[in-house]
Design brief:
Mean pLDDT: 85
Shape: elongated
Strand content: 35-45%
Number of helices: 4
Distance between the termini: 60 Å
Largest sheet: 6 strands, antiparallel, barrel
Low-confidence stretches: none
Order of helices and strands: HEEEEEEHHEEEEEHEEEEEEEEEEE
Number of strands: 22
Strand order of the largest sheet: 2-11-15-13-12-16
Length: 392
């Protein structure tokens, strides 16, 4: 009996040793939890800062240009002479062309005045709608979201009103330049027209001096480019497939501009026309410009500065989410491997919104559930797993 007992004990010990040596080890996996928290879906791309209104001062007639003493960054006042021309004598054809330019400038000035009236009417309507919705929100007749839309509409209308007035000023300046170009039309043959100063239509700064040295210039030659340094806008070109998800009023976050914080802006316009652009890989893409207005001061940023923009097309302050790297496809459905009692179990989930890092969980998982973050091909249903520390 004692001998049989020793034999049985030896068999059990050998079996335990064989199981220890040859039993399948738990598969090391990195895990993450399903959590509740804020989530955003954004459209990301590079963009630039540009002056909202740019004014190009051009020679209205062929003339001898005096040297321009202004430099980039110099401030100018409305009505200040930025260039001085000595017009060349005009023949009959040139007089007719100058008269035609004057007529066209006057027509554009009338159109600009009508646009100012329309913009002012839209602004008055937006202000009255804002005031009406404020009263309704206080009495709980409409939702706060309707008031937010009214505020955005009022801001957009006010910006359009300012832009319309700037365009009217530029049109009136073009009329004055065209009128000045005709000053010498009635002079006797051989007489030289008086000097023609070109004035700034607005208060601003010199963005670029197109022609510096004294020389003869043709009619229409750009001489100086001016802009208002207090009115900037953000331009971001996105794929047309992304542009359809963006709407005026969406938040725009500006990063990668060289400072240490994120600047806020707001989408004002999604341009209605697309253009073709060749990507870095040589692929033709249809892209659309998205225009935004800064909400935070831009500080040292100026015309043409590069930024990285994230346009928020969807956001939620509290939603169930999981790391996107834990998801995988099974046919047309999304699945994850949930870790329960040291074993992996495949679970089907229903997704909502997704961004580059996270996915919204509508059903299939509860907050606090542990899932495999990077499921590999070797992972199987009911397989033993050993969670490891997350990768740095």
């Amino acid at each position: 009996m004692r001998r049989r007992a020793w034999i049985a004990a030896g068999v059990l010990a050998a079996g335990a040793l064989a199981w220890f040596l040859f039993a399948p080890r738990p598969l090391p996996v990195e895990t993450t939890k399903v959590v509740r928290g804020p989530m955003q879906v954004t459209v990301n791309n590079e963009g630039k800062i540009r002056v909202h209104d740019r004014y190009v001062i051009a020679a209205p007639v062929a003339a001898e240009m005096a040297r321009i003493e202004l430099h980039e960054g110099d401030p100018v006042r409305k009505g200040q002479a930025v260039a001085l021309l000595n017009p060349l004598p005009m023949d009959t054809r040139q007089r007719q062309e100058a008269q035609a330019r004057l007529d066209a400038a006057r027509a554009l000035a009338r159109e600009a005045a009508l646009r100012v009236r329309r913009a002012d009417a839209d602004l008055q309507l937006a202000e009255s709608e804002h005031a009406r919705l404020e009263r309704l929100v206080k009495n709980a007749f409409v939702s706060p979201q309707a008031l937010e839309k009214a505020v955005t509409a009022e801001k957009t209308s006010r910006a359009e009103s300012h832009a319309a007035r700037s365009r009217e000023q530029a049109a009136l300046a073009d009329v004055q330049a065209a009128q000045a170009a005709l000053q010498g039309a009635a002079l006797p043959a051989g007489a030289r027209p008086p000097q023609l100063p070109l004035a700034s239509p607005v208060d601003g700064v010199v963005l670029k001096v197109n022609e510096t040295s004294e020389r003869t210039v043709a009619a229409g030659t750009p001489l100086v480019t001016l802009g208002d340094p207090m009115r900037y806008e953000i331009v971001v070109d996105v794929l047309s497939t992304d542009a359809v998800r963006i709407k005026p009023g969406d938040a725009m976050l500006l990063e990668g501009w060289g400072g240490g914080k994120t600047l806020r802006a707001q989408v004002r316009l999604v341009e209605p026309g697309a253009f073709t652009k060749i990507s870095a890989l040589g692929v033709e893409e249809q892209r659309v410009n998205v225009i935004g207005d800064p909400v935070d001061p831009l500080g040292p940023l100026g015309d043409g500065y590069r930024i990285e923009a994230r346009i928020v097309v969807w956001s939620s302050p509290d939603t169930v989410k999981v790391a996107g790297s834990s998801l995988f496809r099974v046919g047309a459905d999304w699945h994850v491997f949930a870790v329960e009692n040291g074993r992996a179990h495949q679970r089907k989930v229903t997704l909502g919104q997704r961004n580059q890092d996270e996915a919204q969980i509508l059903s299939g998982l509860a907050p606090g559930a542990l899932v495999v973050r990077y499921p590999g091909n070797e992972l199987r249903e009911d397989m033993r797993v050993a969670p490891i520390a997350a990768r740095p």
